[in-house]
User: Which sequence fits this backbone?
């Protein structure tokens, strides 16, 4: 199954709706983008303004709002999973009988994605034969319905019906969507973008790296359970792409020197370093305070920047390091030499002839590993390459 990113959170009209605010937040921490679809009655407990503020997205409850967008169809087309939490007895009954009397129930009929239902209600309602039969119907149709917890309800009553702990909901949801969590407990450090070296207050030496490949690796590692930090230099990521770094610590830098300092600070705690940033090979010997005149440009003296990768590899304990080489030819032998010289375990040889790769969403090249593997990567998305690189890193991390 493709990695789940877009999740619809359907909210039923029960007091546990307020607990779904926390659920939404924790899902965002794990990198899911959430659109909230409350039932009209649930707005008595948590209003649309709260959901809009928390999700950063518009909230509608009826099919006749934003009619031009045909919300139930457009949401159904882009979502990867639907969580209904809390699901009330009435909502479960309406879904079981195929009703479509609000946006959420329309959506349930319109989607073809995993649906995860988290009921919460008074124990007598949960145990009522009508609810029992409705839950059975949902389960027989492939919905995953979580059992409520047994415990104290809003009043003094005790029994099955409590909304489960957020973490229990997320665990079961992730099991359902079988998201690969093979980086759980690991710390992944990624560099991305391109460093800039100031010449004067106006000009700099830089490069065309967009930061997209590094961002893709960071997202993939996060989605596979890792704690991720990204050292980001002057990226050209869109607002949405920056938002998609949700749950990832972003350390912004400008120059190679700043990136070096951040790497020295963060590398010791990491299990894996992915060095996808394009580091400027040189910087002006002096940064001038005044804008220099055209005639003086030929006098700019450059000094080579240190090889950050090589220097950091010398600090390594057990870390695995992935390097990138952007080349206009595909000389595998030379790339293997580069990997060895830099002390990397894995190197992605990126064919950038024609400049097509910069800022693009796709890539093509070879994955080389220090244990001799040589994997051709035919034109593919940067997201797919990110997962392939992480697969190789996992082999070496043991
Ligand atoms: N890199 C680095 N520090 C530098 C230059 C590059 O850490 N000063 C890292 C990049 O992040 C990348 C890898 O080294 O992971 C390969 O970069 P590349 O530019 O291909 O290597 P260079 O050593 O600059 O080799 P060349 O002379 O072929 O450009």
Assistant:
């Amino acid at each position: 199954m493709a990695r789940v990113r877009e999740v619809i959170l359907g909210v039923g009209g029960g007091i546990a709706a307020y607990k779904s605010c926390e659920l939404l937040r924790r899902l965002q921490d794990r990198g899911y983008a959430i659109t909230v679809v409350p039932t009209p009655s649930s707005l008595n407990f948590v209003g649309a303004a709260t959901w809009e503020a928390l999700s950063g997205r518009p909230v509608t409850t009826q099919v006749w709002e934003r009619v031009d967008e045909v919300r139930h169809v457009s949401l159904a087309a882009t979502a990867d999973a639907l969580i209904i939490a809390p699901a009330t007895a009435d909502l479960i009954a309406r879904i079981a009988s195929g009703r479509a009397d609000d946006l959420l129930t329309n959506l349930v009929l319109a989607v073809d994605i995993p649906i995860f239902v988290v009921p919460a209600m008074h124990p007598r309602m949960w145990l009522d034969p009508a609810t029992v039969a409705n839950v059975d119907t949902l389960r027989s149709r492939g919905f995953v319905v979580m059992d409520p917890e047994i415990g104290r309800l809003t009043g003094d009553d005790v029994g099955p019906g409590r909304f489960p702990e957020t973490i229990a909901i997320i665990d079961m949801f992730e099991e359902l969507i079988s998201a690969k969590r093979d980086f759980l407990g690991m710390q992944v450090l990624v560099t991305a973008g391109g460093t800039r070296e100031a010449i004067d207050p106006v000009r700099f030496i830089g490069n065309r790296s967009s930061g997209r490949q590094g961002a893709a690796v960071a997202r993939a590692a996060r989605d596979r359970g890792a704690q991720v930090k990204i050292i980001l230099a002057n990226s050209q990521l869109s607002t949405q792409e920056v938002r998609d770094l949700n749950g990832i610590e972003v350390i912004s830098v400008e120059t190679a020197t700043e990136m070096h300092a951040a790497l020295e600070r963060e590398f010791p705690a990491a299990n894996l370093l992915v060095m996808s940033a394009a580091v400027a090979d040189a910087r002006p010997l002096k940064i001038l305070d005044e804008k220099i005149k055209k005639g003086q440009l030929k006098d700019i003296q450059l000094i080579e920047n240190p090889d950050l990768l090589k220097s950091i590899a010398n600090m390594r304990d057990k870390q695995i390091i992935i390097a990138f080489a952007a080349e206009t030819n595909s000389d595998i032998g030379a790339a293997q030499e580069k990997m060895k010289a830099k002390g990397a375990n894995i190197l992605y040889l990126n064919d950038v002839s024609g400049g097509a790769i910069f800022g693009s969403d796709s890539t093509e090249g070879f994955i080389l590993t220090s244990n001799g593997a040589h994997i051709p990567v035919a034109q593919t998305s940067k997201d797919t390459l990110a997962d392939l690189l992480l697969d190789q890193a996992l082999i070496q991390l043991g």
Summary: The mean pLDDT is 92. The chain has two domains: 6-176, 187-397. The first strand starts at residue 6 and ends at 11.
